[in-house]
């Protein structure tokens, strides 16, 4: 069973992502803060990380950089969850070390296809 | 000057004299030549008559003898008769001969020892008489004895039978001497004689006689021409050029000649009487001398008289000119006096500080009479304050120093009032000495006008200053208002941006959860539930795109958009756009046409370009129910990318075209329901295209499809 770490502070989004992933047979590890995300990424060694950019403590880009800086997190695919509102988020995410991105709001019909590209 | 007339007159006289002389001379010469030719003709005729009589005489004599039986038979009696004839006529004839019918000499006297029965039948004249049986005369030939001779034969008949000829040998020298040599006209005029064949029978020129003229004078065309007339037996008058040798020189002599034929038995000769022209001139010498004398006297009289005539004419001309010049001078003087006297400015002449001349205007200006002013020192008429300056100016000018010629001053009127004037002074020569010519203009009026103008100008400047201040104040107010407005505008955009973000968050869950429910992830749902949830999802998506568009616009207007430039292939973008719409196209059964050349790369904001294309293609698909949607691209001038989205849809009404790119203007409100849209799409496209340094434009006809053209630079520059 593949394991996905979802770093997301918004409960609704977290619920939605978790629901879709579990329905599709994934194990979901959750982090609601950046620091927690970094820790879990290192200790749990997930197969994929979904990273929200706007987080309450450190933002997703910084979190990504820290994960990439650790031995455990240098290879894991990290998918950024970007908002349409912030121009340049995508580019910044890729520059920070993300493997790809999914634009919010999440469309459940296309979500899984996007995820599977990175596994 | 007057000598010219004289020379001209003299020249006319001389030329006239020359012409008259020439006319007289030619007239006289022509008469002299006529006279000469008349004389020559008489000589020629006398000569001809003499020669003709000579031959007639001998024809008679010979015919008498030829009829004698003794001669016909040529017995001793006949021979004696022949000797008698010879003895009687020995001055003229050199021999008497009897020739038989075969052309053999039967007998001749005086007998010179030649053998008798000599055959002479081959001689020209013998052949002729034997043929014609008529008298003949031979050409001139040189006889055995050495003299020139002519043979004269008459036929001898016995009954009707030709028995040869009876002939005499005529001493041609005697004949010529008698009839030709005597012809002497002047010193050098003479006669010569030719035969019918052109043989010279007699000529004073040595060696010519006996030869053909055509041979003797082959180099003288004029003689040959005359000879041709002569051998035809004609009579005439002519001139010819005869070349003769004088010492070592060959000289051409012009001769006047008369020629006429001479009848000689069976033939004719032609005689020429010719005289050189110098003979004529010689004859005229005396006359010419007289003529020259007359002209000489005439010239002696006419030269001095023409000289004095010309001189008189010259005096007359000089006098006329002088009078004309005087008249012109008088008129000129009057003209200038009028100008000065009537001038509207004062004019005066100052010499040695004294007024020598003043015009009436000067006097009028200061209230004195002209007479009072003349002879007065000029500083008397200036106001006291001006006198030192005026005197200084005057002195310096008269000393030849450079002084401004025009300056203002003030005169003193008789009644004490001051008059402002402008003076214009300059040095002239007056009565042989330097003087100052001064023009005086009353500028009181001008000064007053200037003063008024100055006041008015000052007033105007004050007005302008006031208005400028007001304007500056207003501008400042406006600037402040503008800053407020700009700030308000910015705040509006910022507000919109954050509002959009806030509005979007709830949509996440609406879209997300309707999605998973519709997918059946939560559990089975009925058809009714499915339909209703689909409506929720579509509304949410519509709201999302509305918010997105609004967000973009507000960001662009707030100047917050940052372009993200990268290098990318147009093909990829086009592919993505078309893939997005392929389900919709299939559903509506529309043809998709793609005319995009491969290999176009751009350096620009990929996402924004795609956004514009998405909008345009979306519109095309939305408003087309049948036919096709076409996406075409080309590069213009190597630096502009032009993309065209063409459809066969409902098109745009003419009145709608200018509202096309305005916000919330989905054109036909009745269509809003059918073709759902935000009403911001084209407005946004226009904004984005401008942001990328390009443009979007539209062409359309109602119900006949639309064409949207999107142009952007291949390389987007750094400037905003």
Secondary structure layout plus pairing:
The complex is a heterodimer of chains A (119) and B (720).
Chain A lengths: L2 E5 L3 H13 L3 E5 L2 H11 L3 E5 L7 H10 L8 E5 L6 H8 L3 E4 L4 H10 L2
Parallel strand pairs in A: 1-2, 1-3, 3-4, 4-5
Helix pairs in contact in A: 2-3
Chain B lengths: L1 H66 L1 H5 L2 H13 L4 E7 L5 E5 L14 H9 L3 E2 L3 E2 L5 E11 L2 E11 H10 L8 E5 L5 E3 L10 H4 L4 H10 L5 E11 L2 E16 L2 E10 H66 L3 E6 L2 E5 L1 H7 L3 H4 L13 H12 L7 E7 L5 E13 L2 E10 L1 H75 L8 H31 L7 E5 H19 L2 E5 L5 E5 H17 L5 E9 L3 E8 L21 H4 L8 H11 L3 E6 L5 E8 L7
Parallel strand pairs in B: 18-20
Antiparallel strand pairs in B: 1-2, 1-6, 3-5, 4-5, 5-6, 7-8, 7-11, 9-10, 10-11, 12-13, 12-16, 14-15, 15-16, 17-19, 20-21, 21-23, 22-23
Helix pairs in contact in B: 1-8, 12-13, 13-17, 14-15, 15-17
Strand content of chain B: 15-25%
By DSSP (H or I, 4+ residues per run), the number of helices of chain B equals 17
- In the predicted model, the low-confidence regions of chain A spanning at least 5 consecutive residues are none
Distance between the termini of chain A: 12 Å
Shape of chain A: globular
Order of helices and strands of chain A: EHEHEHEHEH
Mean pLDDT of chain A: 87
Question: Structural class from helices and strands of chain B?
Answer: alpha+beta
Assembly classification: heterodimer
Strands ordered across the widest β-sheet of chain A: 2-1-3-4-5
Largest interface: A-B, 19 and 22 residues
């Amino acid at each position: 069973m593949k394991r996905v770490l979802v770093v997301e502070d918004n409960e609704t989004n977290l619920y939605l992502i978790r629901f879709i992933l579990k329905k599709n047979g994934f194990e979901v590890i959750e982090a609601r803060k950046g620091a927690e995300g970094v820790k879990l990424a290192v200790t749990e060694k997930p197969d994929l990380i979904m990273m929200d950019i706007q987080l309450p403590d450190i933002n997703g880009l910084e979190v990504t950089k820290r994960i990439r800086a650790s031995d455990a997190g240098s290879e894991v695919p990290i998918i950024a969850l970007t908002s349409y509102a912030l121009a340049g988020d995508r580019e910044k995410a890729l520059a920070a070390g993300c493997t790809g991105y999914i634009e919010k709001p999440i469309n459940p019909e296309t979500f899984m296809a996007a995820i599977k590209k990175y596994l | 000057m007057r000598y010219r007339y004289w020379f001209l007159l003299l020249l006319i006289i001389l030329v006239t004299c020359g012409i008259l002389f020439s006319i007289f001379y030619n007239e006289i010469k022509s008469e002299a030549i006529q006279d000469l030719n008349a004389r020559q003709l008489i000589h020629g005729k006398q000569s001809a008559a003499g020669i003709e009589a000579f031959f007639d005489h001998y024809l008679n004599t010979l015919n008498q003898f030829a009829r004698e039986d003794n001669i016909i038979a040529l017995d001793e009696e006949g021979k004696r008769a022949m000797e008698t004839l010879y003895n009687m006529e020995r001055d003229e004839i050199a021999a008497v001969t009897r020739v038989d019918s075969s052309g053999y000499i039967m007998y001749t006297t005086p007998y010179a020892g030649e053998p008798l029965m000599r055959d002479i039948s081959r001689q020209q004249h013998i052949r002729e008489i034997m043929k014609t049986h008529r008298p003949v005369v031979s050409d001139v030939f040189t006889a055995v004895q050495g003299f020139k001779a002519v043979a004269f034969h008459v036929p001898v008949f016995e009954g009707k039978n030709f028995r040869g000829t009876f002939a005499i040998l005529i001493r041609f020298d005697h004949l010529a001497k008698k009839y030709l040599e005597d012809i002497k006209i002047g010193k050098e005029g003479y006669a010569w004689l030719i035969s019918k064949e052109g043989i010279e029978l007699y000529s004073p020129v040595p060696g010519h006689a006996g030869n053909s003229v055509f041979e003797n004078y082959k180099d003288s065309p004029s003689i040959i021409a005359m000879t041709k007339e002569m051998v035809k037996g004609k009579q005439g008058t002519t001139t010819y050029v005869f070349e003769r040798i004088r010492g070592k020189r060959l000289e051409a002599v012009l001769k006047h000649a008369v020629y006429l034929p001479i009848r000689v038995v069976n033939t004719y000769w032609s005689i020429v009487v010719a005289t050189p022209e110098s003979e004529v001139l010689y004859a005229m010498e005396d006359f010419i001398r007289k003529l020259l004398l007359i002209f000489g006297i005439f010239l002696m009289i006419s030269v001095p008289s023409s000289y004095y005539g010309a001189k008189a004419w010259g005096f007359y001309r000089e006098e006329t000119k002088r009078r004309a010049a005087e008249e012109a001078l008088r008129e000129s003087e009057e003209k200038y006096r009028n100008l000065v006297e009537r001038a509207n400015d004062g004019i005066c002449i100052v010499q040695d500080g004294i007024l020598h001349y003043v015009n009436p205007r000067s006097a009028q200006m200061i209230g004195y009479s002209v007479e009072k002013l003349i002879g007065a020192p000029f500083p008397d008429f200036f106001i006291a304050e001006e006198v030192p300056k005026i005197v200084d100016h005057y002195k310096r000018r008269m000393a030849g120093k450079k002084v401004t010629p025009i300056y203002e001053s003030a005169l003193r009127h008789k009644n004490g009032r001051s008059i402002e004037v402008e003076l214009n002074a300059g040095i002239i020569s007056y009565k042989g000495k330097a003087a100052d010519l001064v023009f005086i203009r009353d500028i009181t009026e001008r000064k007053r006008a200037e003063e008024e103008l100055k006041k008015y100008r000052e007033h105007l400047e004050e007005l302008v200053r006031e208005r400028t201040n007001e304007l500056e104040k207003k501008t400042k107010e406006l600037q402040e208002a503008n800053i407020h407005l700009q700030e308000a505008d910015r705040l509006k955009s910022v507000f919109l941006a954050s509002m959009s973000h806030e509005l979007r968050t709830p949509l996440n869950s609406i879209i997300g959860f309707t999605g998973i429910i519709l997918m059946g992830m939560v559990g089975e749902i009925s058809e009714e539930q499915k339909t209703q949830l689909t409506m929720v999802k579509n509304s949410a998506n519509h709201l999302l795109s509305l918010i997105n568009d609004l967000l973009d616009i507000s960001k662009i207007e707030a100047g917050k958009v940052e372009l993200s430039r990268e290098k990318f292939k147009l093909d990829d973008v086009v592919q993505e756009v078309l893939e997005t719409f392929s389900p919709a196209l299939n559903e509506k059964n529309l043809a998709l046409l793609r005319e995009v050349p491969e290999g176009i790369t751009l350096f620009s904001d990929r996402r924004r370009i795609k956004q514009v294309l998405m909008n345009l293609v979306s519109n095309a698909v939305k408003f087309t129910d049948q036919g096709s949607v076409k996406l075409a691209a080309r590069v213009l001038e190597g630096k502009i990318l032009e993309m065209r989205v063409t459809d066969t849809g409902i098109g745009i009404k003419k009145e709608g075209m200018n509202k096309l790119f305005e916000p919330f203007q989905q054109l036909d409100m009745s269509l809003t329901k059918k073709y759902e849209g935000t009403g911001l799409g084209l407005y946004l496209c226009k904004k984005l295209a401008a942001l990328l340094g390009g443009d979007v434009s539209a062409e359309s006809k109602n119900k006949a499809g639309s064409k949207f053209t999107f142009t952007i630079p291949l390389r987007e520059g750094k400037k905003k």
